[in-house]
Amino acid sequence: MNKPNVAKLQKDFFPFKDGAMIYSEPIAFQHTVFLDEYFEDKGYYQSVLNLMNSVTENDNITFILNNHGGSLDVLLPLINLLELTAAHTVSLCTGSQSSAATIFAMYCDELVALDFSEFMIHELQTGAIGTMSNVTRSAESSAKRNRRLVEESYGGFLSPEEIEDVLRGVEVYLCDAEINARWPSRKVWRDAFFAQKLQTQQALMEQAMLQEAELEIPDDVAQGIVEMLEPQIKTPAKKRARKAKE
């Protein structure tokens, strides 16, 4: 936090004359975002992306979620920014969450399902148009993306058997009590997952530094590579790793 401006600490600045002077300034914001529209319009959610990109570690964002999902192209920037944002994020589920909306909830720091709220989880829906060979390659790529998305989004929340059910087309429904009961396991899984991810990023950084020494890469280019690979610190596991490094 920036130190208060000395000019502001003059006695005349305060509305009272007796007793100790007190200077107060805001250091945190509580943001509330209502996510009740389908994830279809990229422009509609641009303000949410801007918010997550501009907040500080002192801020909190509560997402009021009542959403039936939508486009993966709209969802992915949102969950990537959830992973990177400095703020503490909470998903408050107030109704029926379906498809992409359940994935969004999984990437928040905290999740609370209110009475009678529900999850409907299923695999990625996609389609392709073109020559037979192009459609085949597109389907193969979508299958890989689908498995990774389902495994990473619901790891620790769904059992391995349930994840395989989702990947073979079964819809999984969970009530509010089941959602709340499963969430602590998801947090434990997520911490372990991101700790491993951080180790991978650090290994890439070390490799880049070795290549810099061997290839005599200019310092400014090498620094750009390191900054690109340096993970944004967000999750508890990442915060612990950063403190350990410092």
As a whole number of angstroms, the C-alpha radius of gyration is 23 Å
**Count of strand segments:** 7
Q: How large is the count of helical segments? A: 8
Rounded mean pLDDT score: 79
Instruction: Strand order, main sheet: write it out.
Output: 1-2-3-5
Helix coverage percent: 40-55%
Beta-strand share of residues: 5-15%
Shape call? globular
Structural summary, described in words:
- With 246 residues, the chain is an alpha/beta fold.
- The protein has a domain at 184-246.
- The chain contains 8 helices and 7 strands.
- The strands form 2 sheets. A 4-stranded parallel beta sheet has the order 1-2-3-5. A 3-stranded mixed beta sheet has the order 4-6-7.
- Mean pLDDT is 79; it is low at 1-11 and 231-243.
